[in-house]
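Weekly structure sync, notes
Attendees: PL (lead), two postdocs, one rotation student
Agenda item 3: pending single-chain targets
PL asked that the sequence for the first pending target be pasted directly into the notes so everyone works from the same version. It is reproduced below exactly as submitted, 81 residues in total.
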Amino acid sequence: MIALSVSQELVPGTPVSSRFLKLAEEISQKHRYVLREIEIHEDGQGVVLTGFASSYYGKQLAQHEVLKAQLAIASNRIIVG
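Predicted structure, written out during the meeting:
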């Protein structure tokens, strides 16, 4: 099961943009067999990805989805294992 959440760290209580919701849905649907517990945060400098991937390829897929959405990646903290 994938636990996917989208949040904004700098401005608590701010509604999540539809852009982040769409991105989370795409990642969840396309890569459900290689990614687990993916979280997407915006830290003011870009997007931070966290969670688990079954391979480095899965980690790269999540990063690619963010780049396709034309968002800057501040950090990819997805753990491979």
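Discussion points:
- Residues 18-30 form the longest helix (13 residues).
- The chain has one domain: 5-80.
Action: rotation student to compare against the earlier draft before next sync.
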